[in-house]
Amino acid sequence: MMDQHEDPKFERWLKDAARTTYHAPRTPPREEMWQRVEEARRRKRIIEIRPWMRWAVAAAAVLAIGVGIGRWSANQSSPLSAPAGSRVATEIDSLANLAYQVAATQYLSRTETFLTAFRADANRSASTARLARQARDLLTTTQLMLDSPAADNPRLRSLLEDL
To answer: What residues contact residue 35 under an 8 Å CB cut-off, 6+ apart?
Structure first.
């Protein structure tokens, strides 16, 4: 059964017209495109750096950066009038004291935790071995802290002696 709007001849004509004329691509100008590419490649200048030249450029850059850093650091005014050697020693001593203070703070917090756990678990016999092991470790650390420069601080020394 053929519908009144369907005509096979018209359908064929429409498909042929669409295939041949509707948005038909133009042929690309391949020869002209390749000529442009070849001209661009001929005009392009290539700078070839030999391996020894790369190393020379890298060494010169490192040398220039080193000289710049040296001059920049030499021009900075020193905040202290003391010689450089004593300034370095003072800075090292202050860093060492800071390290001992941090170690002492950590040790005291461990001790506080141990004393709190001991007070809470004093009636239980299951945790006695664990608490004894922690007590021995803390006693060893206390003796080491008393022999260290951290004990030069009188307040910290009295705390360590009490423990």
So the answer is: none
* Greatest CA separation for the chain: 113
In this structure, what token pair is assigned to residue 4? 């009144």
Number of domains in the chain: 1
Q: Which tokens sit at 96?
A: 């060492």
DSSP symbol at 79: S
Q: Confirm if 111 and 103 have CB atoms less than 8 A apart.
A: no
Tokens of 75: 């021009």
- What are the tens digits of pLDDT across the range 97-152? 777 778 888 888 888 888 887 777 766 666 677 778 888 888 888 888 888 877 78
Question: 121 near 131, Cβ under 8 Å?
Answer: yes
**CA triplet 139, 145, 146: central angle to 5 degrees?**
90
C-alpha dihedral sign at 78, 84, 88, 89 = negative
Whether residue 91 lies inside any domain: the answer is no
Task: For the full predicted model, state whether its pTM sits above 0.70.
Answer: no
Using an 8 Å Cβ cutoff, are 111 and 84 in contact?
no
Is 152 part of a structural domain of the chain?
yes
Quick check: is 108 in a domain?
Answer: yes
